[in-house]
Amino acid sequence: MITELGKEELIVIGSRFSGSGLVEQGGYTLGIATAQGKGVTNLLPPKYVEEVTAVREEVREAAKDKEATAQESKFATSAQNEAIRKAKVWMRRVVKRSKRAMHMGKQVPDTLLHMVSNAKLKEFSQAIDLMVKDFEKYASNIPGSDNAALLAEGKTLASALLSADADQEIKKMSQLPQKVRDYYYKKGLLYKGLKVINEAGRELFVNEPGVAETFNFKILYRHINSHKEEAPKEENKA
């Protein structure tokens, strides 16, 4: 089993990524995992890499169906998903900035030193809200001439996510054709499987940061950024 997360949750997760991006990312991640042999597989459940590989092939085949892929652009550029992506970028900036403060001997809470990655919208929204509040509280200890602007951005993102209706998102997905739901479910499975393999690779090379960093999602994020750049062109055509 790749993950014990529920099907509806995986469908929501899968809606956020393009099939082609996940397939390409999967080729890279599975490739470097396989190259490491038992080093990585020993940190995973039996036949985990094989199971993720099989799902990648299912996503590749499903991505050929125009009906299944027709709504990818719509969901990938939705306001809520865009807010989530921006929130993660904001968190990374705060974490890096806070770690610099820590190394300078400044007092900063643990909430500002670690990224939060949670598929459930409610928990993720609560996490960024807490991070924003702690950043405001400890801003004077954190180096950065634009702390005020960064704080304002965080407040805007937190507010947008806290007001988002996760139940509505699930309801929207439930109304999709079964073929599309199955496609999104497989994409969600693949995404989570690749995340698990990446974590195993990072653990294997915990004492070799340079190698550990090769277990990343740069290919998938490149697809996301490319998609965002192209989206306005599609809107202008409408």
Describe this entry's structure for a reader.
The chain is an all-alpha fold and 238 residues long. 72% of the residues lie in helices and 0% in strands. It has 2 domains: 7-71 and 176-237, no CATH class; 80-162. Helix 2 (19-35) runs antiparallel to helix 4.
Defining key terms:
13 helices; mainly alpha
Q: What sort of overall outline do the alpha carbons produce when their principal axes are compared?
A: globular
Bin the helical content: over 70%
Number of helices: 13
Number of domains: 2
Topology:
Blueprint: H1 7-14, H2 19-35, H3 38-41, H4 48-62, H5 66-69, H6 72-76, H7 79-103, H8 121-138, H9 147-162, H10 166-174, H11 178-204, H12 209-212, H13 218-237
Helix pairs in contact: 1-10, 1-11, 2-4, 2-11, 2-13, 4-11, 7-9, 8-9
Summary, kept brief:
This protein is mainly alpha-helical. It is built from 13 helices and no strands. Residues 228-238 have low confidence and may be disordered.
